[in-house]
Amino acid sequence: MFSLNSIAAFVDAWLNSTFSPATALAFQFIIIGLLAISLFAVLGLVLVLMERKVSAYMQIRLGPNRVGPKGSLQTVADTLKLVSKEGLTPAGADKFLFNLAPFIVMIAAMMLLAPIAFARDFQLWDINIGVLYITSVSSMAVIGILIAGWSSNNKYSLLGAMRSGAQIVSYELSAGLSVITIVLLAGSLSISEIIHSQADGWWIFKGHIPALISFVIFIIAVTAETNRAPFDLAEAESELTAGFHTEYSGMKFALFFLAEYINIFIVCAIGSILFLGGWMPFHIGNWAAFNHIMDYIPSSLWFFGKTFFLIFVIMWFRWTFPRLRIDQLLNLEWKYLLPIGMINLLLAAAVAIGGWHF
Amino acid sequence: MTLTVFYLLSALSVFSGLMVVLSRKAVHSVLYLVFCFFTIAGHYLMLNAQFLAAVHVIVYAGAIMVLFLFVIMMLNLNLAAEAQKTPWIKISAVILSGLMLLVLVASVKGAEELSAAQPQNDIGLVKNIGNILFDKYLLPFELISLLLLSAMVGAVLMGRKEPQPQNE
Amino acid sequence: MTDLILLKHELLLTALLLIFILMKLGKDISNSSFLKMSNALLLINFIIGFFGNQHGQMFASMFQTNELMALQKNMLNGGLLLISLSSSRWLNNHIHLPEFFMLIVATLLGMFFMISSNNLLVFYLALELATIPLAALCSFDLDKRQSSEAGMKMIMSSAFASGILLMGISLVYGVTGTLAFTEMSSLIASDHLTVFALILLFAGFAFKLSVVPFHLWTADVYEGSPVAVTSYLSVISKGAMVFVFTSVLYQVFKPMQEVMYQLIYIGAVLSMTIGNLFAMRQQNIKRFLAFSSIAQVGFILTGISGFSHTGAASATFFILVYVFSNMAAFAVAGIVSSAIGRETIDDYKGFYRTNPFLSWVLAIALFSLAGIPPTAGFFGKFFLLSAGAAKGNYVLITIAALNMIISLYYYLRIVRAMFMDKNETPIGSVNLSFNERAAIIICIAGILISGIWNGPFHTIHHSVTEAFSITPF
Q1: Is the peptide bond before C374 cis (omega within 30 degrees of 0)?
Q2: Are C42 and C77 in contact (CB under 8 A)?
Q3: Of the candidate ranges A348-352, B32-36, C142-146, the one whose mean pLDDT is the lowest
Q4: What would the mean pLDDT of C108-115 be, rounded to a whole number?
Q5: CB contact under 8 A, B69 and A129
């Protein structure tokens, strides 16, 4: 069957038969790098357009509709505009760090792609602690944001970076706890094993109460972690102009902007892997016929479908809830989500030990 | 190959450790420290302790260093606020630490005949760490929980300052 | 587990810790009833400590206990009870009373684990547990800048000491490949690296014991902290360190006695001399007691340097005496400080006119600290010096004896100020509460009884001999 996995296997075989192993490996690195960058570019274009279209739909208006058919090339035009702009560096800024910050944020986002399985057996690096790897790498992004805010030498940037950092660090706890719930149920930290454990049903169904609670916590926490409305205090326009990237312009701004959307994609991909089975088709217990029909839908479609569904949910939040105040934001995390998450972890441990999941 | 990576990582971690001390700006020091932690995580990876490496990055680079950055950025330290030290203090500090280094190097020199520890290949994996942590090292583990609890009480107490009631 | 009885002291303290937290979380209790309850709990804890003590090891022999350690823990428990009683006036007016007890019990728990540790990892963690809450306690006078400064200095200096200690521990681990005391002692050879590691470990210990030249934090921290915490620092924290020092030294570093002797010799001479010389010119009574406690550590080191069962026993006995004497002195200083708010030595001029009872108490305590018979301090120092003399280094003993004479001068200076000097504005008469009176009477009784009747020393000597013959020595 035609699948991403077979293409990858074919390319690998061809490279290895044509070149020496070392050269083949080098070529593979290059191909992967190119693929990652082009995935980023495409995702950026698609997600920004999607955001604008979804928000237009929510507000009963049309959204971008001039460039290309139904406005589909609008983001391409935006990108061209950003590329042609001059990248300014403020006079009092710490030049090196100022220019480094967007790259740190981007590199952190790129490294997160490594353990994600896009389709059946189509995964860059099946590291045995995949989930922890994701948590640890995503914590790097905070440093990039803080550096950006500090090196801009601007009060608004610094405040925005501080808010953003506090928010990310505190919500990371809840996200981590809800991830651990699934790790407990699945009994592994490796992404591929977690996906394979969902062959007879996704964890959100199999794990019933604990999995549902942790799914809700996860969605709230990652919305906050990606600094999106209703948790977008870090870049509250009316208070801080634009948060930590106030001073950035041109391509450096574009990198931040892109990283933001890539991060949304990645957290939704992780959510879909942990709770919705990743590329695993929708299977119900031992209904052989039904499961067989579901298997005909390509696994990459399943993965992207679930991920984009979660992205849609997060965009939906933006136009549904008003922005929180900073104290409400921290109260929500430390007084509600974190205790609930901890109790839920105990519940999940009980469920996992008792084998009370399906 | 492994040896090359080891030397590279070690050189980087020593370099970044030095830069932590030598940087003029506090924020740069913290960033070099973050970098140093990453290189140490690399060392863990080379020892096949992926779990330790990931936790090291999460805890140190992700959480503790972010708090460091927070505090330093809030304090807005600049060079003018740096305490002035007399040349005598600087000279004596240099002499003392030089002597310390000399003694350390001299005493390490005799350590060549020490037997190296036998590498255990899977000691750093999650399962083994969990087993050893909750079995052999149960007491230290529980002690840490008490330590963190009391440190938290102390920190909350010091952080939340309210005036004492004036009943005298 | 059937051998949980071995953990009795620690479990009791952990239970107390949790009770104090729950009491804080529960409904508001007035300070005086909380104080009554906590004193009762501490008393129960103290009494239970005497029963059913056994010896043995737990947790893959990371934890060990024996009758000597139980005795030492009981002494510390009693010291905590005395502090709680004698500083009830200050505690009664403090809004964070439950936190005080919670933190102080946490540090004591750390000290217990430190005493019982049989592994450098447990030892280090217990040391941190004993130190970090203490820093919070030092800054417990939340509205005083000096107190915050004391907390800051405490945490900085102890972090530095921990760093040195950790480096020593890692070198020891590198050399021997183990962290367990019992395995380590057989693997230790006196090559250069081990000697260096030993010096680093000694420096870490010396910081906590405030041995000169690692004493620089002591005076400031003692002065800034509330008196209750100062007495805790100078008596209990120091006592626990001495206990650990003797047991680690006598068990682990037995093969390196010669190097260790040199270190202790230097530390003892410097501590005695410099502590005394600085104590002479202090005006603040807390600073004065700080330097006098540095000098006392010098005497303790003299006793330890004997490397014999008598050395360990005399150090332990001296701590018992020191608990009573120093606690009595601090109780008076604390009562005066929290009732009147005055802390300098000049304020004590004419103290006898207004407060004859407290003057006598302070006088007896200072006599005991100076080592004047028939108070217990005399016998404490006598045993220390005779244990040190067994090694045959009479230079050390002569210096110690000279220092005892110097110390007489400044201890008696305060006595003279109280009894003989005139003062226009003497400290007003202070009414003692029941708790304070009880604490003071226990201290004085302890000083006199253990001075006239040497029973405790022989008990301790017996249990030291027994304890060190159980563990490989």
Answers
A1: yes
A2: yes
A3: C142-146
A4: 92
A5: no
Cis? peptide before A102, omega within 30° of 0 = no
List the single residue in B106, B115, B139 with the smallest CB-CB distance to C62. B139
Angle at A32 between CA A113 and CA B52, to 5 degrees: 45
Tell me which amino acid residue C6 is.
Answer: L
Check if B83 contacts C (Cβ < 8 Å): no
> What is the Cα–Cα distance from C344 to C356, expressed in whole angstroms?
19
- CB contacts < 8 Å between B and C, how many? 100
DSSP A193-232: HHHHTTTTS-HHHHTHHHHHHHHHHHHHHHHHHTT-TTSG
**B11 domain residue, yes or no:** yes
Beta bridge partners of A191: none
- Among A285, A279, A324, A275, which Cα is nearest to A305's? A279
Q: Are C213 and C298 in contact (CB under 8 A)?
A: no
- At residue A278, φ and ψ (nearest 5 deg) are 60, -125
Instruction: Kindly state whether B52 is in contact with chain A, defined as any CB-CB distance less than 8 angstroms.
Output: no
Does residue C173 surpass a pLDDT of 60?
A: yes
Three-state DSSP state, B168: coil
Q: How many residues does chain A have?
A: 358
What region does A127 belong to: left with phi over 0, alpha with psi -120 to 50, or beta?
A: beta
Supply φ then ψ for residue C54, to 5 degrees. -130, 170
| pLDDT score of C2 | 59
**Closest chain B C-alpha to A108 CA, distance in angstroms:** 12
The DSSP result for C272-310, as a single string, is: HHHHHHHHHT--BHHHHHHHHHHHHHHHHHHHHTT-SHH
Asked if the structure places residue B83 within a domain, the reply is: no
Whether pLDDT at C47 is above 70: yes
- Using an 8 Å CB-CB cutoff, list chain C residues near B161: 142-143
Q: How far is A206 from chain B (nearest CA, A)?
A: 24
* Co-location of B4 and B72 in the same domain: yes
Evaluate whether residue B165 is within a structural domain.
no
In a domain, B112, yes or no: no
For chain C, what's the residue count? 473
Q: What is the CATH number of the domain that holds B4?
A: 1.20.120.1200
Total domains present in chain B: 2
Per the CB < 8 A criterion, the answer to whether C303 and C327 are in contact is no
What is the band of C472 on the pLDDT scale with cuts at 50, 70, 90? Answer: very low
* Binary contact (B164, C142; C-beta < 8 A): yes
Residue B131: domain span: 125-160
Query: Using CB atoms, which chains have 3+ pairs under 8 A with C?
Result: B
Boundary (domain end) residue, out of B77, B94, B114: B77
Residues in A touching B30 (Cβ below 8 Å): none
Q: Do A166 and B70 touch (CB under 8 A)?
A: yes
Asked if B139 has any chain C CB less than 8 Å from its own CB, the reply is yes
List subunits contacting chain A, requiring 3 or more Cβ pairs under 8 Å. Answer: B
If one compares C3 and C8, the residue with the highest pLDDT of the two is C8
